[in-house]
Write a structure and sequence with these properties.
7-stranded mixed sheet; 7 helices; binds adenosine-5'-triphosphate
């Protein structure tokens, strides 16, 4: 039996306890004994045990001081007095002022985009600002354009979610009725044309929803939008960010920890866009490629099996002849070989039929809501995702793991490059 380690920390006001759970199959339980504390913007309930598992990198922050207990083996645990939380709170206060102004003038609330290189805490700041907004009674829209992490749905997708409650400490934001679009790769670099197409589409739908919500009293439209992006910021990555900024008609860009990016955006953005430089937290942990792959895998596992609350996915066989699988992007030809009026880039958003084969094993398939391949498939949001757990070439069937009992007949499935080994 492993010995359970018990550690108690007394935190002064404006300080945070940082810890990591690294060793395999470790579990650490956190409990606030006295005072008040929050975790990435969500208030912790005194005396309630919260569990963290392998890979968790956590900060418990307190504005007024508190005592916290940790049970279990942590890889690292220390108290930091220097944090950028006051600066982040000021950003929240400024956004809140804009929401109040939007309410008075019946206009839309602030659309904020968070940018910066990898591992600077973009996702964490997104979560903090969303949490602070809902704690003030707002209903902001959370947009995640980071296909590498895919915190709404799974990696390889982008999406949006109306946030009505603070993120749960262990499970994040409630995933009810997200709006999700298929990309199919873990980096926008793999198909920029497709990436920009779905970003524009998502922006259009989010803007429409805000417009429709204007009529409601406590409207989501005055609460605004907070957009998380991926850490690819150079060359084409920069163009991709400016495209997203334009598509969502952002009002504020928060640049984390990169002066060059800050200056470029200041130079290139229209004057009405506020570009703000923010420091990163010293607590943000750099992740290796292997660690990122693990997080991606865990995210997909959670999609099918749940985290704290278990989900029970369905497994069933589907005949090859009943499947309509496509991938997005035909090999691109030079412009001179294209039919009149078509650009070479158009090929990158074309649907190409995929014949079922053994190569489909472990791949994710996006289930679209499109009626047929001639429908605007890319513009249709996803019903969800399934994964291929086995291919039987003899019987000509695929075994599918799905959150739903059975996919709708005639569904258009889009093939993702991402894989998931189901060894649950
Ligand atoms: P990416 O490059 O994937 O876009 P990012 O910039 O969004 O990364 P985050 O995912 O927010 O970065 O943070 C990286 C890791 O650091 C996460 O595991 C997060 O939980 C952890 N982290 C963030 N802030 C702190 C902190 N103050 N103390 C300890 N850990 C932290």
């Amino acid at each position: 039996m492993t010995e359970v380690q018990l550690q108690e920390f007394k935190l002064d006001p404006d300080s945070e306890l940082r810890f990591e759970v690294e060793s395999k199959n470790e579990k650490v339980v956190l409990e606030v004994k006295s005072g008040y504390a929050e975790l990435f913007g969500t208030e912790l309930v005194k005396g309630k045990p919260y569990e963290f598992h392998t890979g968790a990198k956590v900060a418990v922050f307190t504005w007024h001081g508190c005592t916290v207990e940790l049970r279990g083996r942590t890889e690292v645990s220390y108290v930091a007095k220097e944090t950028p939380m006051v600066v982040y709170l000021n950003v929240h206060a400024a956004l809140e002022q804009q929401r109040v102004a939007a309410e008075q003038e019946n206009t839309r609330g602030p659309v904020t985009m968070i940018v910066g290189p990898g591992d600077v805490g973009k996702s964490t700041l997104t979560r903090i600002l969303l949490n602070y907004a809902v704690r003030m009674g707002r209903r902001p829209i959370y947009v995640d354009l980071d296909v590498g992490q895919g915190q709404i749905s799974v990696p390889g997708t982008i999406g949006a979610l109306l946030v009505e409650r603070p993120a749960s400490i262990e499970e994040g934001f409630s995933q009810q009725a997200p709006l999700v679009y298929h990309f199919g790769h873990k980096s926008p670099e793999e198909n920029l044309e497709l990436y920009n197409t779905i970003v524009s589409r998502l922006a259009e739908v989010v803007a429409e929803r805000c417009e429709n919500n204007k009529k409601e009293t406590d409207s989501a439209s005055t609460s605004g939008v907070i957009i998380n992006t991926c850490g690819w910021i150079k060359h084409a990555g920069y163009k991709m960010l400016t495209h997203a900024a334009q598509a969502f008609e952002v009002d504020v860009i928060l640049v984390l920890d990169n002066e060059r990016l800050y200056n470029e955006l200041k130079r290139d953005m229209p004057k009405f866009v506020k570009v703000v430089y923010l420091p990163k937290s010293g607590g943000v942990v750099e992740r290796s490629t292997a660690a990122r792959a693990e997080v991606r895998d865990a995210r997909i596992r959670e999609y099918f099996y749940g985290k704290r609350t278990p989900y029970y996915p369905h497994s069933f066989d589907v005949k090859f002849s009943d499947l309509k699988i496509y991938k997005v992007g035909a090999p691109s030809l030079p412009d001179s070989c294209m039919p009149l009026g078509m650009r070479a880039e158009d090929a990158l958003t074309k649907l190409v039929a995929v014949q079922p084969s053994a190569a489909l094993a472990h791949r994710l398939l996006a289930v679209t809501l499109a009626a047929g391949p001639d429908d605007d498939v890319l513009a249709s949001n996803l019903a969800g995702l399934v994964t291929v757990t086995a291919v039987d070439m003899e019987r000509q069937t695929l075994t599918i793991l799905s959150p739903q009992p059975r996919p709708l007949p005639n569904t258009i499935l889009l093939l993702s490059e991402l894989q998931y080994m189901d060894n649950h």
